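Example record

The entry below shows one chain as it appears in the dataset: sequence first, then structure tokens.
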Amino acid sequence: MIPSIQSVYFKPVSQGELASAAIDALYKAAHRTVPAEFRGLSGNDMDAQDLFERARRKLGNPDEVAGLRDFVHAANGFARALDPSCVLTLSHGGPFSMSEQECLGGFELDGINPVEWIVHRIETGPDTGWRASPPIPVPWTVKRVTPGLAAAAADLRPGDEIASINGVTVSNETAPKLLPPFLVPLLGQASDIVGTAAGRRYKLVVRRDGREVPLTLDIPKETVDQVASESVFGYARKSDEEWNFFPNPTDRIAYLRLTGFDDQTPMSLAQTLNKLAEEKPIGLLLDLRWSPGGSLQSGGRATSLFFRDDQEIAKVVWKDPRRTGEKLPRIPNGVVDEIWQTLPLAVLINAETFGGGDTIAGAVKDHKRGIVMGQRTSGRGLFYISTDTGIPGLRFRVTSGRIDYPSGRSRHRAENHGPLDEWGVRPDPGYEIPVTADFSKRLREWHDRATIRPAGESSAIALDDPLNDTQRVLAFKMFKEALEKRPRK
């Protein structure tokens, strides 16, 4: 793996540095001190494989690094010499998955140990018939539900405890048989058990607010990676499952929220914008708070919808010299109504605006395309490719380049960068809307609940009172005032 990492990593790194980082992680996982001969290695004049094998033999075989655990700990240890985001990832067979730990139907369980999860999926699954207990604490508590998929339609919610599935109580004894059917199949792995929940109906009982609630989960025949999910949202969901994009119809200011950028987001956004154009909006507030990023290419295509073809949307710096000058892919003008290149625009950002959301905000800022409101973005400006590990279903993610704003301003916040350095996107002067970290977390939970609530579901949620999102309320107020100050044509 080391040569392949060196060939694509965006900065020079030696075999010695990588070998030393892997050995250090391995010994720390086993709670042992690294022998002096394996510390502080550098240079390329060594046999990294031989070094690692000698270090592994010297360590012995404690439980913490038994089986595949030694490989997982060592590979993830490479991040000590690389960017912290360089880690092992599971490889699913489809264009989109919000999480490697997502189950069929679009939900994720809480308390999963990433190392043990990888080991369980790769090492114990197909060969043992999933007899080993999955590394998820019982009771199974729902951590996240993906909008637009089966779990959301069933009204499964974050915080629910799954008490039983088809009458079988979830326990440490039953978990090894209950979980595998809900797992997304990995590339290169075959099993008669994994993923068999696809196309089936399940009766769940969940514990919610001190009571037991029965739910019916109908999982489509296609896997979660092949089922369209939502990433384009409006202000509130209407009774027909469609979204209302105009909080106040008399103002004619449209509101649109983007969460993540998968393969389907650009065209979903284009379709939504074309529908909105028919309503003759006078401005658009684009909510990019908590946008977790996603595909680099999808972020570029989505951003391009708001700019002319001759306006650069980002600068990409590749490690591979053969890709020098390569730009982000775009959707050509003409796919959406031309008003979206000129209509007054405001973007609402915060410290959890990543990926495509940061790309949009940066292009808006540099081209003076609209007003930037909220809080400074995260300053994460690196992108990744996945390299082969030689193990079916398992890849290693390597930072392979940097993305900057159209003007060439730095997007990425390096470890030594402070608040006065140039990184990320700042709100325009006078348009800062600060909120505390705790309130931002609560706001995100409220919005997530609003996006997964099925149409017609009667229980009240915080955003039924729109004034609860004070940051959004203030953004609308400031945007409306800015529009009213514009000279009339």
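Notes for this example: Residues 62 and 199 are 42 Å apart (CA to CA). The domain at 232-382+401-485 is CATH 3.90.226.10 (2-enoyl-CoA Hydratase; Chain A, domain 1).
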